[in-house]
Amino acid sequence: MGINVYTGLMGSGKSYEVVAEVIVPAIAKGRRVVTNVDGIDGDKIRAYIEKNYKPVPEQLGEVVHVTNGDVALAKFFPYYDDKKGAHTDTIVQPGDLVCIDEAWRFWPATGANLLQEHKSFFLEHRHFTNEQTGVACDLVMMIQDMSTLNRFVKNVVAFHIRTHKKISLGMPTHYSVSIFEGNKQSKAARISVELRKYRKDIYLLYSSFKGGADGKIVNVDKRQNMLARKKVWITAGVLLVALGIGLYSSNRFFHPKRNEQSTQQGKPQDASGNSAKQSAAQSAKPTFSDAWRIVGTARFGTTSYVVIADEAGRLRYESPSMFVQMGPQTIGEIDGAKVTRYSGAVVHPVHIEGKK
């Protein structure tokens, strides 16, 4: 496969990412890892795998630590000569995983000529396979910026992984990992972006500082943390208040009846006031008349009337405008009560006997 390059500023997590996601899994698969990462400890890596991998692999790989001087040697990588003869009497053996930190020191963008042996490995390293496993060599480089790497190497980069520490977001224990295809950092080339958290147990497997020193990184300017600015919190508070008002107004607009009912229910009222209002509402609702019913219609000239009568036979002439649905279902409101053809008191027939 091609070359994988991990980029990121100092302390951003590129070495951490290579140890956690490349070196440790490779050791767990039984591979031999050649690297110049400071403080890399093969024994600690194997102990970490035995503790965290279930089930524990039967055969673990090994870590071969090399110096920067070793990396610069012509016989560091296996290579092919001009006659296509393979040379494997080198530090890196066929099938090895090679992880080089600060790769710009050995293959800079300007001011240096690449060794012919190194060029051969960059272009043909997949042909150097392990005799037992058949696994080919892989090469991983770590630099701060892709522009500092030699153009010859950049042209054979398969994937570019960029790490970024989230200090500006107030998350110093987290970092982002952006994966790009090739050596370009464009949206079209970006494959994925992931937020990850630094794990303390990974830091024990290598050293972030030269010579294994126990160093510490501090922020010299607190303004680097965006969340430390008062303006950000004030703006966030204003936006939250505006959002709350907007939601409340929308609810009032789209559900006015429900809000009115809840408002009325929330008002304290005494028992007598409630009963009085309820009785008033009930009395205000018209009922069917016990006195009057419709008996017919009458017309005097051009004026029409609806005739109603009571139990005693008294007649009243009312305007048709007080009634609706003229016909058998005519109904109107007289004296606060509904009057129809079937309202009024029931008239009982009276039988009178004559003298014999």
From TrEMBL:
Entry's transmembrane regions: 232-249
Coiled-coil features, chain-numbered ranges: none
InterPro entries, alphabetized: P-loop_NTPase, Zot_N
Biased composition (Polar residues): 261-274
Region (Disordered) location: 257-284
Keywords: Membrane, Transmembrane, Transmembrane helix
Domain Zona occludens toxin N-terminal per the UniProt entry, residue ranges: 3-209
Compositional bias (Low complexity): 275-284
Pfam families (UniProt xref): Zot
Protein name per UniProt: Zonular occludens toxin domain-containing protein
Organism listed in the record: Herbaspirillum huttiense subsp. nephrolepidis
